[in-house]
Specification:
By secondary structure, the chain is of the alpha+beta class. The protein has 3 helices and 6 strands. It is globular and about 50 Å long.
Length: 125
Amino acid sequence: MAPVRVESPVFQAYRGSEPPRFVNRSELECAKILDFYGIPWEYEPRSFVLERDEDGRVVSAFTPDFYLPEQDLYIEVTVMKQSLVTRKNRKIREVQRLYPDVRVKLFNRRDIERLAQRLRLRLAS
């Protein structure tokens, strides 16, 4: 999937070293919300290895979309149909099992829509 190139805003609260290259519009919208509220964030700063093969090669990994350093919290954003979120939930449970000190929160379409409604934001479809 090609990175989102619709716009390239200047982020004030972004803490990464390279400009973020969002995979989809929902990630960009969430980054704009975090930035608007001055919440320091990083984009995909770490991947968590979930499984290796017998030669030590990574077979499965999970890279959350955002990291909020002040909250020590990773956020995964998905607007997939709820029926397709099962795989992401499974990976998050595996991260929590293998890395018990790591906090990850999944924001699905419903969560994002509720947040947008609460903040009176218009979301891209």
